[in-house]
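Quick one: co-fold with NDP.
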Amino acid sequence: TSAQIGVTGLAVMGRNLARNFARNGYTVAVHNRTVARTRELVERFGDEGDFVAAETAEEFVAALERPRRLVIMVKAGDPTDAVIKEFAPLLEPGDMIIDGGNAHFADTRRRERELREQGIHFVGTGISGGEEGALHGPSIMPGGSKESYASLGPMLEKISAKSKDGAPCVTHVGPDGAGHFVKMVHNGIEYADMQLIGEAYQLLRDVAGYSPAQIADIFRTWNTGRLDSYLIEITAEVLSHVDEATGKPFVDVVTDQAEQKGTGRWTVQIALDLGVPVSGIAEAVFARSLSGHAALREASRHLAGPRPSTLSEQEAAAFADRVEQALYASKIVSYTQGFHEIAAGSEEYGWDIDQGAVAAIWRAGCIIRAAFLDRIRAAYDGRPDLPSLLSDETFAREIAAAQDDWREVLATAVRHGVPTPGFAAALSYYDGLRAPRLPAALTQGQRDFFGAHTYRRVDREGAFHTLWGGDRSEVQA
Ligand code: NDP
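Sure, here it is.
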């Protein structure tokens, strides 16, 4: 038998991806460093389709039809390089190595370059949807060469999630590291979405005085409207869950220190390098980091806050509606920032990424899947060179309609001492973009004063410097 595809690395993700291929009628070669995992897969799920269990790298490679398609699903980082080193010598020109792990796109660029010399296509591929997605249909973001996509695309389309209109949630994102870059930004947006939802929850709890169960109901209602999304849906599930041992709301027995694996941090680090303001995503990463500083939080508990108060029942209901507006407006800003980073990365690395296509493949299968993404796709399809999502008339109109409530929610949060870094960063970004004049002019003056860094004038071409230490006359630099 020769397998159309092989998967090495059979932990949760690899195993489910292999099963997904097999369930879709492909013959799948399976391999794992620890052989027990390979045996377990075939024993438990062998009846789901055609698997070829390979115990050695040689057996694995020999089981694959040519050109070979070899998917790596191992722990990202050094293990990926180790596995490439093991398999690359066994491969031939035209073969494809597909890395489905959460690799940093810079590593993917390096690996692609190295393997290209050997004539091997390295396809760095972002895969989102967790273990369930891997099994039932993830959103797939492949990079790599156009040729590799011609061979691989149809298979990926088959195993991917399908959006409501039936379109497969996979597209050739762009060359080399483009796929992993887009997956990174996807995760950054995911961080921002989760933070904004967290802030909405905290406000409904601490300001409006609702219980977790009541807030779950509010989120369920929101999920029937424009906020309809997987993350809102699971938020309602988590909030309505009751801890069996104590009978308390589950959310009250979980330690409030958020962890992270790194893709959110990467999104911000790369944005800094590219000069893209992703303040909402950055605040989401920082909020997780702040939550984790237990000693600092303990030591700061004596810091004074405002006098505690909660809203009346009637005020609370109106407030909840306002929070929905604030959440939606802030969400538009997060996506605006994320898509800006994709545009900047595409420009920097010459990827020519189709933003509308990216929005389209995030409509199903991935963690940030949402009805909203269909509208982003429409915005970019309508105008592919859209400078910013906020330049889209529909989104601009929606934010305009939400802004009074958005401002009111933030003012209330500040008065009540509830931290809302995500909402605040989003609103500041919005106000920053629409401001006719920014204090950046003053910044330029200060820079010229202490460092003779020069400035440009609004009324004349050229760079200028004021002789601050002398007679303060202006000279052309
Ligand atoms: P893990 O990240 O826990 O990785 C475990 C797998 O890596 C095992 O198969 C292990 O083999 C193998 N491995 C580790 N080191 C080596 C090595 N040096 N040489 C060979 N194999 C090695 O598994 P997951 O299934 O959680 O994730 C797989 C990849 O998918 C990761 O890159 C992850 O970031 C990414 N991903 C995960 C998602 C998720 O929801 N979990 C979602 C999207 C992407 P052994 O059995 O021999 O130890």
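If it helps, Residues 9-14, 32-34, 37, 73-76, 79, 82-83, 100-102, 127, 130-131 surround NDP (CB under 6 Å).
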